[in-house]
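Reopening: structure tokens for the N-(iminomethyl)-L-glutamic acid complex, inputs below.
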Amino acid sequence: MIDADLAIVDASELVTVRGAAPRRGAAQADLGIIEHGCLAARDGLIVFVGDERDYRRQVRLGRSGVEIDATGRTVLPGFVDPHTHLPFAGSREREFSLRLQGTRYEEIAAQGGGILATVEATRRASYDALVELGKARLNRMLLHGTTTIEAKSGYGLTLEDEIKQLRVLRALDGIHPVDVVPTFLGAHAVPKEHRRDRAGYVREIVERMIPEVAGQNLARFCDVFVDEIAFTAEEAETILGAAAQRGLGLRVHADQLSDSGGALLAARLGAASADHLEHATEEGIRALARSATAAVLLPGAAFFLRAAASTLGRRLVDAQVPVALATDFNPGSCPTEAMPAILPLACLNFGLSPAEAIVAATLNASYALGLAARTGSLETGKAADVQVLDVPNHLHLVYHFGVNHCRTVVKSGRLVVEEGALAGETWRGHSGKGAVDKASG
Ligand code: NIG
Ligand code: FE
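Re-run output (same inputs, fresh job):
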């Protein structure tokens, strides 16, 4: 018998996403569905996945164990959101109104608004204020089925303020059930005090920020926004080269607003991901296909910036590039924490199928963070990071859009969302070590 302390039983569809990562081409749509599926966990790890008959025969649930009835419901791996800008203060709804009247995102940035407006607000915010904001946002993510995220600094743009943001991320990872993977994005914009001295800011990043961030082990990745309104591919190569030397993994904001050579650069440097890619060239896509780099698509940002619908996702999958999906959660180009808002946009505006979008939001997203051995699919030995949706099959996640179907979330084997509400634990209200332990390793 297999001993368990938590079980989810009789799902109309148990979407396992089992098998090797990353998923490319036809494998991007392989969901590994088990009808009348059951899952059991012990000490935070999955110990059984199978159908109801085998579950009844093989699994013994301890006396204080929790059994969750998923009859008529769909069970998925918790979402992994591999691109967020979580630790910021303020909001930009007035800029949004201007954009609705026709002002372009780039124009707002050129006038000192956009990213630099959020930099002002974030510099002014205290560490504690950022932790509180972060907690509320992570709660919203968890309620929408997200169990692991990547989160970037990049609204500090001084050594001190970047470190403040990264320390906030470290604290949030310790307090909150959602796992937070930190990325240093000092190269998000050229700060206004360096406007006439770009080279000086790049030097500051390379010579002071990266050594300090890596030395204090405050980030796992380094990212650069490569674009006309941010950094050139050449500047990015200098920054990412320095980051790689210090042991950081690499990510690139690539070809979002224009073709800036970002996809080619990401592939050539062996980056973990190339993100956005709306203006990637065919050459850039072919380079990604030959590399181990994942494409992280952000259809929420494209939608929010009113980019035209395209076949970007379709072209990438057909070219054998592993495709992941993320929110890009940030106050300018995509102010939503909800991964379920992103999947319909990926299908309707970027040409993915619902099955491809689900793989992109789970296993491939986990691969893009280097975590595929630990989370992103429902297989024995992996973390029990699971969501239960009140829908009869996975298609409803895309089809029945604009509402939250997530009823139950289990993170590392613990029940953290119950019937659509946070399960009573201390991370909700105040700082300090929460009652939910993090999975080790
Ligand atoms: O991913 N592209 C750069 N950064 C964000 C936008 C950040 C902002 O507008 O504050 C993005 O879209
Ligand atoms: Fe981004």
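Residues 85, 114-115, 118, 225, 253, 256, 301, 328, 330-333 surround N-(iminomethyl)-L-glutamic acid (ligand 1) (CB under 6 Å). The chain has 16 helices and 19 strands. Marking as resolved unless the reporter disagrees.
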